[in-house]
Amino acid sequence: MNYLSGLLPLVRVHEYQIVKLLLDGPKTYQEIVMYLTETVQGFVLAELEHVLTYLQFVEKDKNILRLSVPMDDQLLEYVQDLIEYGLIRYVIDNGNETGFKLWLNYRMDQVQLKLLKNPGNIMVGTYYYDDYVVIFASLKKDLEEADKLNYKDKFLQPDLFQWESMTNLPQSHLEKLMKSTFAHVFIRKMTTENGLVLPFTYVGKGKMSNPRKTDGDNGTYLFDIHMENELPEYLQYDFGLTKE
């Protein structure tokens, strides 16, 4: 059941609620819909379709869903405890927030999951969806001061983030950035710390502005992202705004 524990900390409860229900035996699709409507705040059918596309250990035979893994008493108890822990922690972490929660940490796969996209699509730092973009940026705080000068991603003010695009940015991508209504912005101070890959902190929505081509021939553009929320003081040191 590494798959279920790998979803922690939960960014949505749908997977756990479905498995919880199926522990009692096979259920119809309609029963799943009714159960999620009762247990998931703001539930919409598209979320269930997305869950069933990627959820492991659940098989669908026509209108019937069931767990595809045999359960002995020991495994059943483990899964029940895991589900209870995951659901309780979700409430503690997210409260009544159904979207991304400000200042909470997310892995890239979790962001894609919550946006109803492919959670395996984690190879680049910028994603273009409908009328918005999703930006992941690492601030390279672990580098020496001289080396940091090569990187342009940084907070200029608590509510203003300077972001550098990918190299050789295609014109079509530039147009998507300029036409986007907002950007979801996720930041981390460095890629790894003590041998562990760090998650990204959600710093909120921002508006892309002031696109300008950088010096040199690497084809990158700088943008100013005006954030809806100011970075709280406790994150300003980690994200390079303050020195102490």
Give the number of domains.
2
Low-confidence stretches: none
- DSSP strand tally: 13
Largest sheet: 8 strands, mixed
Q: Percent of residues in helical segments?
A: 25-40%
Specify the number of helices.
9
Outline: elongated
Return the string of H and E elements. Answer: HHEHHEEHEHEEHEEHEEEEEH
User: What class would the helix/strand composition place it in?
Assistant: alpha+beta
Strand content: 25-35%
Per CATH, the class of the largest domain reads Mainly Beta
End-to-end Cα distance, whole Å, is 43 Å
Output mean pLDDT.
Answer: 94
Gross CATH architecture of the largest domain: Roll
CATH homologous superfamily of the largest domain - what is it? SRA-YDG
Radius of gyration: 21 Å
Quaternary structure annotation: single chain
CATH fold call of the largest domain: PUA domain-like
Domain DUF3427: 101-233
Protein name: DUF3427 domain-containing protein
Pfam family, one: DUF3427
InterPro entries: DUF3427
Q: Brief overview, please?
A:
With 244 residues, the protein is α+β, with helices and mostly antiparallel strands.
What does this structure look like?
- It is a single chain.
- The mean pLDDT is 94.
- The chain folds into 2 domains: 2-94, Arc Repressor Mutant, subunit A, CATH 1.10.10; 105-236, SRA-YDG (PUA domain-like), CATH 2.30.280.
- The strands form 3 sheets. Strands 4, 5, 6, 7, 8, 9, 12 and 13 form an 8-stranded mixed β-sheet that branches. A 3-stranded antiparallel β-sheet has the order 1-3-2.
- 33% of the residues lie in helices and 26% in strands.
- It contains 9 helices and 13 strands.
- The chain has 244 residues and is an alpha+beta fold.
- It is elongated.
- It holds the Pfam family DUF3427.
- Residues 101-233 form the DUF3427 domain.
- This is DUF3427 domain-containing protein.
